[in-house]
Design brief:
four-stranded parallel β-sheet; 1 helix; 6% helix
Length: 110
């Protein structure tokens, strides 16, 4: 699970809540009409992304986003199309590690 496998990419297209620790094997993309609330630790494989497309929402509720494999993941990408962009809501400050994308970066672009 430490190397990204495109066959294991996840698409979120409806309201979804993750409350138990997860080790992902692919990218995670939230599409229009979908929302993802993270209340837990989520480990991404090397070079994976968490993408929030226009019309989608990411809710961070004290989550830890990391790569538990010793490598780096690419971070959160907030998609934009015209004036519409993905939404990131912060209920409780997340911990974002093992990426060049920081919590401060998230605050600037959301």
């Amino acid at each position: 699970w430490c190397e990204r496998n495109p066959l294991h990419d996840i698409v979120i297209d409806k309201p979804t809540v993750w409350s138990s620790a997860l080790d992902l094997e692919g990218n995670d993309t939230i599409v229009e009409g979908g929302s993802l609330e993270l209340n837990c630790r989520v480990s991404f494989p090397r070079n994976a992304t968490l993408e929030v497309r226009p019309g989608a929402t990411l809710i961070l509720n004290g989550a830890t986003l990391e790569s538990d494999c010793g490598g780096y993941w690419k971070g959160i990408y907030i998609g934009k199309y015209g004036k519409e962009k993905g939404i990131v809501e912060i209920k409780r400050k997340p911990e974002i590690t093992h990426t060049d994308f920081s919590y401060e970066d998230l605050l600037k672009i959301r």
